[in-house]
Amino acid sequence: MPPDPLFEFGVEAHSVRIVPTCSSRAAAQTPPSRYASSASARGRLALSRCSARVRSSVGNFIANILPPPAGSVSPGESRARLPDGPARPLRAPPKGRRGNVAHFWEFVFPACRDGTPPLQPLGPTPDSHAIPEMSTVSRRVIGPLGGFAIVSGSMLGIGIFLSPPIVAKYVAEPLPFLLVWVAGGLTALAGAVACGELGAMFPRAGGDYVFQYETYGQSIAFASGWALFAAIFCGSIATMSVGLCTYQLPALLGVDLAAHGVTLPGGLQLDGTRLAAVGLVVMLTLLNVRGARPSAGTQTALTLVPIGALVVFSVWALARAGAPPEPSSTAAPALTLGGLVLAYNAVYFAYSGWINVIYVGGEVREPQRNIPRSLVLGSLSVSALYLLLCVSFLHVLGSAGVADAGEVGSATAGVLGGDTLRLGLTVLIASALVASINGTVLAGARVAQAMAERGALWSKLAAIDPKRSTPLRALWLQAGLSVALVASGSFENLLHLVSLTMVLTGSLTVSCVFVLRHTRPQAERPYRASGYPWLPGLYVLSSLVVIGVMLQRALTGQPGALLPLLGLAVFASAFLGHRAASRATKHRRSP
Fold first, then answer.
1. How far apart are CA 107 and CA 114, in angstroms?
2. Is there a domain that residue 481 lies in?
3. 354, 191 contact by CB (below 8 A)
4. 262 pairs with which residues across the strands?
5. Which residue has the higher pLDDT, 406 or 351?
6. What's the sign of the alpha-carbon dihedral 303, 306, 311, 314?
7. Is residue 336 part of a domain?
8. What is residue 34's predicted lDDT score, i.e. its pLDDT?
């Protein structure tokens, strides 16, 4: 009896090598006279031929959905090789229809277009164990302390002082109130461990864009990259700058900035608040133009001082004797599932920023160690600080007092120490906001750099200054877009527009861990996500909850609630438009 046609699936790097021990063609040409002695022999021969066809189809399917490593067969060739012949090209289906599931997959996730770098293999083989650097000029100058400061400084912003009143309106009891914040910290930690694995695998500039490019292909990465750079990063820079110059800066200077302003040519009027915000954006851009090292040093100072001071403030508030003020006469709302979800929605955005160090992965020293450590330690530290602050807020103000406060930090400081302590806390909040803006400026430009390296933006934006090792053009483009948003006053609508897209891109990034574990099981992973698959799955699930809340608000017709749906439509249009353009280019170049 001849051996059945078997295929050995060997994984090298991320490619699948299909080695037939007996090809389907050889089995098909085997003389049937050898098996004509019995009906069972003829049945085994028919089963053998059918098995060969099925396994060959499965092999071609896997070979097509996995991207080929550099230097291997071209995307149009099969990896199923006959023992004595070269690879046979796959037969292309007729135009206008897809012949099988593999071609449908190829339509959804096509190969890279000509002129852009192919997906890079990762694995223990001699040709693929090294992770190539996309920018050969950038120097790795950010150490573990700088990475920690980027994560914690980007997280620690105005959210911890504005979100507790929103949470207290839906969750009045202290224990559920604190549990919502614990859930938010656990979600941030879940995302951090997942991105720690991805950041160690791909320590390059770009973060989300690079991970999605390597996992899902060009089109999804193109849509996410444009949403990240043009809207999320630039919109966040504009919003935080205007917020700082609207609330903290006038309190520190004792000047009403809104009462002063200038009129530019064309009739555009800018008040003092927006002029100060423009100056802040330009100043922090100049700091980042000097290089990642001075920017990270400034980030460290602006982060560690507020964190230490806020810890002291919280402990002092807890140690201070005295009962919280009398609760208001308004009855507390009953605890409902909908209220918990809305409260969690506010906490979710208060924890945003934990991901920022992955965008400067190409400039982190020993990235396989320092990127995961920065993500995990930064998320844990800020989560513990948030919980400590919330306990102190409840101790000083009570649940009703927290719910009635517009900005809970100033309200707590006013009860404890009057105007002097309130002014000191304002300085801390301003420092934390500057650190958050600086971390956003540092990270956002690297997304534009990564997109330019792969042809999704103008190629000149990928240029690295040889002296300072920074993407100068990307930094100034980001500054220009941020200043335009500050001047136009449309940044709040823009943030509503991209809020759903921001959650979607984050969940897509974390889902890359699941996909890469399946498609590249032998890839080198210096750090493996702790708690896999439960922690990454928790992050994706929580993101779906937030998306569901936004969709529910949109369906109820609340003011401004339709803007997130418009942002999702823009994301989908960018994806489908890039997919159609890539397909048209591929057909034009095909013979």
1. 16
2. yes
3. yes
4. 270
5. 351
6. negative
7. yes
8. 44
State mean pLDDT over 164-173. 89
State which amino acid sits at residue 364. V
Q: Which has the closest alpha carbon to 429: 404, 411, 451?
A: 411
- Specify the higher pLDDT residue, 133 or 191: 191
Residues in Cβ contact with 267 at an 8 Å cutoff, skipping those fewer than 6 apart? none
- Return the axis-axis angle of helices 208-216 and 491-519, rounded to nearest 10°: 50
Average pLDDT score over residue span 366-373 = 92
Say how far apart CA 485 and CA 494 lie, in whole Å. 9
d(CA 433, CA 382): 14
pLDDT of residue 186: 94
Residue 127, pLDDT > 80, answer no
**What are the C-alpha distances in Å from 562 to residues 240, 550, 552, 555, 556?**
23, 9, 10, 8, 9
Q: Strand, coil or helix: what is 66?
A: coil
pLDDT value for 248: 84
Bin 292: left if φ > 0, else alpha if -120 < ψ < 50, else beta: alpha
What's the residue count for the chain? 591
Residue showing tokens 């955005």: 349
User: Can you give the pLDDT at residue 208?
Assistant: 92
- Distance, CA of 453 to CA of 460 (rounded, Å): 9
Sign of the torsion formed by the C-alpha atoms of 181, 158, 169 and 493: negative
366: left (phi over 0), alpha (psi -120 to 50) or beta: left
Span 75-94, average pLDDT? 38
Domain that holds residue 344: 146-488
Longest Cα pair distance anywhere in the chain, in angstroms?
103
Q: Is 17 exposed, middle or buried (0-12, 13-18, 19+ CB in 10 A)?
A: middle
How confident is the model at residue 7, as a pLDDT? 31
The answer to whether 431 and 305 have CB atoms below 8 angstroms apart is yes
Q: Domain for residue 183, yes or no?
A: yes
Burial of 446 (0-12, 13-18, 19+ CB in 10 A): buried
pLDDT digits (tens, 9 = 90+) for 141-151: 888 999 999 99
With 70 as the cut, is the pLDDT of residue 86 above it? Answer: no
When pLDDT is cut at 50, 70 and 90, the band that residue 18 belongs to is: very low
Q: 503 falls in which pLDDT band (50, 70, 90)?
A: confident
Q: In the numeric block, which tokens belong to residue 317?
A: 């508030």
Contacts of 55-59 with C-beta under 8 Å, sequence gap 24+, read 55/5, 55/6, 55/7, 56/7, 56/24, 56/80, 57/100, 59/7, 59/9, 59/16, 59/18
Confidence of residue 314 (pLDDT cuts 50, 70, 90): very high
What's 337's domain CATH number? Answer: 1.20.1740.10
Query: Could you tell me if 216 and 531 are in contact, meaning their C-beta atoms sit under 8 angstroms apart?
Result: no
* Distance in angstroms (rounded) separating the CA atoms of residues 453 and 206: 10
In a domain, 310, yes or no: yes
Taking phi first (over 0 means left), then psi (-120 to 50 degrees means alpha), and beta for anything else, what does residue 22 get? beta
pTM for the structure as a whole: 0.72
Average pLDDT estimate for 74-96: 39
Q: CA angle at residue 388 from 403 to 171, to 5 degrees?
A: 30
Q: How many CB atoms within 10 Å of residue 183?
A: 17
Q: For residues 358 and 370, what is the distance between their CA atoms, to the nearest angstrom?
A: 10
Number of domains in the chain: 1
